[in-house]
Specification:
alpha/beta, Urease, subunit C, domain 1, 2 domains, 16 helices, 21% strand, binds N-(iminomethyl)-L-glutamic acid, binds fe (iii) ion
């Protein structure tokens, strides 16, 4: 067998391993858990996929001065103490595959109209559904590729993406086929694709009829053809009830999919409690979560995924992040990138909002976009921290210190060193 190809990064201004966060299962994180190493080195193996060199596994991490002799011959990149290295960011909640434009709805909301009013008049999700149904698979793929490239430019190496803008059998499958093509197109990114047929009830059909299609036709096909890794439902007033959501999630779990919930976003439906009870990977949004919901998540293995970019964009009150954290819940942050309630892929900008309005500390912010977000996808065995044996999914930041990631508000994707 040929010797493995190794690469070395030396003189990173700092490297955060996140080891202590993993040891604490992402809960009650303190500053020293980030595992900060000054003047650090990282050794990793590479593999070739489609003619490109892709980082494979971390082989060693530590101080540059302690780099073992056996790695001295490997090809090295000197970061000259100007760039920090962190585990690649994980965006654990996006609606990345869609077509169309909703800027006019944003203008109406700026003039005082609410998201719910616009949705009731046939705008909102249903408007994106119309555009996504009429877009070709090629066009959806092209749009999605641009978005993945943008996400990579923020240091994102792992992305969850949902269907849910088809709301009929064929278009939901079209969205999921695009997700499958993205997995082939971007071997350096790890994706989780999620079937979110239960995002809204399509226009012109009864809810009962659509539920029947999802349960009898789409979900079984999605699972048997392995078109998605997970299933999500939007449980909220005007969307799906707790009972309907629970039926879909249980059917998905029986079919072998992981489960996630859009929970307690616009109103409290006790869907956080449901997510915890069903052993969901994550309960997301949580703007309206109750004390009972907080306790349920804190005592479960379900990650609380907060999306403060969405609360900001909707001018809604933020999720009770501090109470979740203090009660011992594992809290992650994600972008919720979608055309209605959070039109950005800039996860670092979402971290800035979380720092200011959710009151997360530096260590909590770091955990929330690395290990904890990996847990929200069930990927924590492979990703989320930088330790020997795990995936070499890292980001070299264009700054010296990790906190510049969110101190520099809304810096552009792909920025070179500042
Ligand atoms: O995550 N909550 C439901 N779905 C999206 C909004 C989607 C849209 O408006 O297009 C969300 O906020
Ligand atoms: Fe969402």
């Amino acid at each position: 067998m040929a010797a493995e190809s190794l690469r070395v990064l030396v003189h990173a201004s700092e490297l955060l391993t996140g080891e202590g966060i993993r040891n604490k299962d992402g809960r009650l994180i303190e500053e020293h858990d980030v595992g900060q190493i000054a003047d650090a080195a990282l050794v990793y193996s590479v593999k070739r996929v489609k003619g490109r060199e892709i980082p494979a596994k971390v082989r060693w991490v530590g101080r540059t001065a302690d780099l073992p002799k056996k790695f001295l011959k490997a090809r090295r990149t000197d970061l000259k103490l100007r760039r920090a290295v962190i585990p690649g960011l994980v965006d654990a909640h996006t609606h990345l595959v869609f077509a169309g434009d909703r800027s006019s709805e944003f203008a109406r909301r700026c003039g005082g109209a609410t998201y719910e009013e616009i949705a009731r008049e046939g705008g909102g999700i249903l408007r994106t559904v119309t555009a996504t149904r009429s877009a070709s698979e090629e066009e959806l793929f092209r749009l999605a590729c641009n978005r993945v490239r943008e996400a990579q430019g923020y240091g994102i190496r792992t992305i969850e993406l949902k269907s849910g803008y088809g709301l009929d059998h064929d278009t939901e499958l079209k969205q999921l086929r695009v997700a499958r093509r993205l997995k082939m197109e971007f071997p350096e990114v790890l994706f989780q694709s999620t079937y979110l047929g239960a995002h809204a009830v399509p226009k012109g059909r009864s809810k009962a009829e659509y539920l029947d299609e999802m349960l009898r036709k789409t979900l079984p096909e999605v699972a048997s053809r392995k078109l998605a890794d997970a299933c999500d439902v939007f449980i909220d007033e005007g969307y799906f009830t707790l009972e309907e959501g629970s039926r879909i999630l249980q059917a998905a779990a029986r079919a072998g999919l992981r489960i996630k919930v859009h929970a307690d976003e616009l109103s409290n439906t006790a869907s956080s409690e449901l997510a915890a009870g069903l052993g969901a990977l994550s309960a997301d949004h949580l703007l309206q979560i109750s004390d009972a919901g907080i306790e349920a998540l804190a005592h479960s293995n379900t990650t609380a995924v907060l999306l403060p970019g969405t609360a900001f964009y909707l001018k809604a009150a933020h999720a009770p992040a501090r109470r979740l954290i203090e009660r011992g819940a594992r809290v992650a942050l994600a972008s919720d990138f979608n055309p209605g309630t959070c039109m950005t892929l800039n996860l670092p900008a979402v971290m800035t909002i979380a720092a200011l309005y959710l009151g997360l500390s530096r260590a909590e912010l770091f955990a929330a976009v690395t290990y904890n977000a990996a847990c929200a996808l069930g990927f924590q065995e492979r990703r989320g921290t930088l330790e020997a044996g795990l995936d070499a999914a890292f980001a070299i930041l264009p700054f010296e210190r990790f906190e510049e990631l969110y101190y520099r508000f809304a810096w552009p994707s792909g920025a070179k060193a500042f």
